């Protein structure tokens, strides 16, 4: 028979003021927090201008466009691809047709991926950077080395646009199997040069051409100036001729006017004299002499003896 001392005394748990309901609240809050974290972790966003290729446990599921979506986060992953790629390539060399070397220090290039190309690249290549490193850059280098030998050094700068276009066509053909958007490839040879010795010869030739162009421009300028001077001389001569002709005409008209005036005056005087001649009679003349006679006989007589002959009538001048 057990004694009271032999009984096992169990410890008493003091749940305090929270009680059993408080513990349930903590558990519920924890589960809610975990659910919230789970929900947030399943939210994904694809940036504008990109597409996302989704995988679950390594298997491709779908291609998502720009925007947000929710996916069960368990075993989920996504790889994004830029639909428009802009990049540069540096330090390339290529041989020209005249055995010169073209140094392509900087090549800017771009291309567009179709939305379906992302899944294709994910299946065959991997990430976009891997596609750039293993596919795009080697094919771009091949385009540069294939097209450049079709031209010589003298054609590079004048025909740069044509060279770039042929490189674009070649690269587009090489990337067509990867669903590159047609006519989206763009290549710019931003910085090209030749070896130093050849560069010096080009600079010397360019300088000579420039000096020739300047000399030609000066000759054209001098020719134009001479033509202008000749035209001015001809204009001055015509002006002087017109002025001389004008003066001659004016003098001729003045002389004609003077002659006409003299003729008119002479006619007027003749007419006046005629009137006078018609008016003045011998009787009038004797009358005028008689008016001017002072009563003295003439001192000279004409005749013989004591007879009185004709007298020379000389009027006395008392003035």
Summarize the structure.
This protein has helices at residues 19-41, 115-124, 128-147, 153-156, 160-175, 196-279, 282-292, and strands at residues 43-46, 50-56, 59-64, 67-70, 76-82, 84-95, 101-112, 186-193.
Describe the structure.
This protein has 319 residues and is α+β, with helices and mostly antiparallel strands. Among the domains are: 60 residues, no CATH class; 112 residues, 2-Layer Sandwich (Tetrahydropterin Synthase, Chain A); 50 residues. It is 53% helix and 19% strand. It is built from seven helices and eight strands, in the order H-E-E-E-E-E-E-E-H-H-H-H-E-H-H. The protein has a three-stranded antiparallel beta sheet, covered by helices on one side. A three-stranded antiparallel beta sheet has the order 6-7-8, covered by helices on one side. A two-stranded antiparallel sheet has the order 1-4. A hairpin with a 2-residue loop joins strand 2 and strand 3. Helix 3 crosses helix 5.
Provide the fold topology.
Blueprint: H1 19-41, E1 43-46, E2 50-56, E3 59-64, E4 67-70, E5 76-82, E6 84-95, E7 101-112, H2 115-124, H3 128-147, H4 153-156, H5 160-175, E8 186-193, H6 196-279, H7 282-292
Antiparallel strand pairs: 1-4, 2-3, 2-5, 6-7, 7-8
Helix pairs in contact: 3-5
